[in-house]
Amino acid sequence: MHLSAESLDLQALLDKTADDRCGALVVFGGTVRLENEGQQVTAIDYTAHTALAEKTLREIEAEALERFGITHCRLQHRLGHLELGELSVLVVVRAGHRPEAFEAARWAIDTLKERVPIWKEEFYAAGGSEYLEGTPLQSKKSNRP
Questions:
Q1: Which helix (H) or strand (E) segment is 60 a member of?
Q2: pLDDT, tens only, 5-37
Q3: Spans of all domains in the chain
Q4: N or C: which end of the chain has fewer CB within 10 A?
Q5: In a 3-state reduction of DSSP, which class is residue 35?
Q6: Strand locations in the chain (E)
Q7: What's the CATH code, domain 3-126?
Q8: How far apart are CA 72 and CA 134, in angstroms?
Q9: Rounded-to-integer distance, Cα 79 and Cα 122, Å
Q10: pLDDT at 67 over 80
Q11: Which pTM was predicted?
């Protein structure tokens, strides 16, 4: 499962991707941070178009395998209310060697942020909240006349 309302389990991803063929392991974890664009953050709510997000995460994993020649790529993202310091996203990449593992992990998290329909609403210490601008579901460029 790529999306979870429960805490993300790094050890489970490491166990699922364990592979003696791989000499490289790259793990990226994103957490809820205290400050964003000059405002003190107290929490974040993540929501998603679940079916489309799951599909897109699987596509990114498959594309990373093909593009970088890696052995494993796993992506997971939290949904729901997260407090400061909680893990919101995990990327686990295993490969024969480190260069492709690092490249694939960086590409995977950047592509996740660009393509996956997950939205975040930040809550602020000063009061109020705001949905952060993300990538639209449809490109601004259209082939329609």
A1: helix 50-68
A2: 999 999 999 999 999 999 999 999 999 999 999
A3: 3-126
A4: C
A5: strand
A6: 3-4, 24-31, 35-36, 39-48, 72-78, 80-83, 87-95, 118-124, 129-131
A7: 3.90.1170.40
A8: 27
A9: 13
A10: yes
A11: 0.90
